[in-house]
Amino acid sequence: MIALFILTFCLLGIVAFEIKALRTLKSAYYQSLAVQQLANKLEQAESDDISCELWNQENRGLLPSSNGTCNFSTEIHQASLCWFGVLSEMQCMSLQK
């Protein structure tokens, strides 16, 4: 009976580690998507290929509750993107070219 209790406790610990690993993996996935979307927007800024609003619509399909901003002057191109992460915390990234 004691061995069964110890085994159950160990298995619950392993499950907790797995859940934490999955959350970390999902967070890294969202960050990867954000970096890719920001880089794409900066490339598109040079060709004026897509508006900021269309880009935001695309982001909302990829990242939860995301919102992006674009600032393209003649010298500096900057794009920022914020979204809610795995634990409902706001995460933001910005790239400048």
Concise summary:
This protein is of the alpha+beta class and 97 residues long. It has helices at residues 2-47, 52-62, and strands spanning 67-72, 77-84, 90-96. The protein has one domain (2-96).
Mass-distribution shape: rod-shaped
Strand segment tally:
3
Strand numbers in spatial order across the main sheet: 1-2-3
Question: Count of helical segments?
Answer: 2
Query: pLDDT below 50 for ≥5 consecutive residues: which ranges?
Result: none
User: Radius of gyration over alpha carbons?
Assistant: 20 Å
Return the string of H and E elements.
Answer: HHEEE
Describe it for me?
The protein is built from two helices and three strands, in the order ααβββ. The chain has 97 residues and is α+β, with helices and mostly antiparallel strands. The mean pLDDT is 85. Strands 1-2-3 form a three-stranded antiparallel β-sheet, with helices on one face. The chain has one domain. The radius of gyration is 20 Å and the shape is rod-shaped.
Key terms:
97 residues; alpha+beta
What is the secondary structure topology, with strand pairs?
Layout: H1 2-47, H2 52-62, E1 67-72, E2 77-84, E3 90-96
Antiparallel strand pairs: 1-2, 2-3
Helix pairs in contact: 1-2
